[in-house]
Amino acid sequence: MHRYREFLTSLGWTVLILAVFVTGQTIPLPNLDVSTAQDAISHVTFLRLFANVTGSDFSNQTLFSVGMGPFMSAMIIWQAVQAVGDEAISHLSPHQVSLGKYGITLVLAIAQSFQVVYLVRGSLDTFYFPGTQINIVFISTIIILVAGAMFVAWLANLNAAIGIGSSVALIIPGIVRGIPGNLINGFGDTEDVPLKITATTLTAAIIIGAIFLVLSVITNAAELRLPIERPMLDQEHSDSYLPIKVLTSAGMPFMFSSSLFMLPRYFVNQTVGPTTPLQHAIVTWFSYRTPQGILVYALVLILLNYAFGYINLQPSRQAKTLRESDDYLIGVPAGDATEAVIMHHFNLLTFISNFLILLVGVGPLIVGLWYPAAVNYSLYLGSVLILAGMVGGVADQIKGLINKNRYQIFD
């Protein structure tokens, strides 16, 4: 039992944290007409897509509706800043780093909360500041949502410290919950054709999803290992390597590609439709059902795959870490030469992973030019790829917690 004690303790904390998170997503916002608010949000497709992969729940206006969106975006922004300005970031204390991350989270939480409240403003009841005729329901609702988002960020950090699955544990339930809707409704725009669920289509979806899940697990685990020489270690224990995953971006392109791609569509009135040449161009080039739109979406996926892969790997940081520890890639001088070799392999692996990304994201769109319902599989399989990467990371952590007590340095 001693072997599983740490795992069971961490699992218990994660269950408790998830219970608090789920409970917060059932507490409705005060002074709000829920039915009309849901109607207002349902027409904003990119929010639904963003919510599916960030643990948010915009379909129900609750204390934790904003969810993990600001925190996740802040972590990505911080990683990008760290990749660009590693020298400056390395001199910050842990307290300053924490303040920076929470500061970015707060700014994004305010912006996203304002966006949500503005969209449902017609559903808000009046609430006057005591003794005045000043209606404060708009600002008070924003404050409640921001407070909920910051509390969720604290829960995510708490789970990373004492639970299982780091911060992604709070995202996984939302992704699982959104997969059936992604398959049936697709991207949710006016051009989408809902997939009719019959015995045949359900069986096909399960088989395709299972096959792709296996492929995703294999791809997420695949890595290139560059041998490292560690002169400061005893020769018997000096064999080591630098792993570079084939899918360095870990499926993150699918977390933001859809909402990013659909943003230009909101410059076009969704009810009236395009009325100017510019609006017609936007509808043509940012549609999942035109060759031009499919090309643009493919470019978005490729760019995000490269950007997130670079942020996750950070070749310059890897080279710097090796140099500072007096380690080096075998046959490669330390410093710039090491960074160049890491970049070369990263570019090669990213080129290879682009084929998988395009197969998942663009393949169904091409088929959809002839069979419209196939478009839904782009979002469906993308969610499976994200889920496989996250679950794989959680499984590795669980394995480590279980096995760490099997080894003893001293008898």
TrEMBL record:
For this entry, list what GO says about its biological process: protein transport
* Stored SUPFAM superfamilies: Preprotein translocase SecY subunit
Q: Name one Pfam family in it.
A: SecY
Q: Which GO terms describe its cellular component?
A: membrane
The protein depicted here goes by the name Preprotein translocase subunit SecY
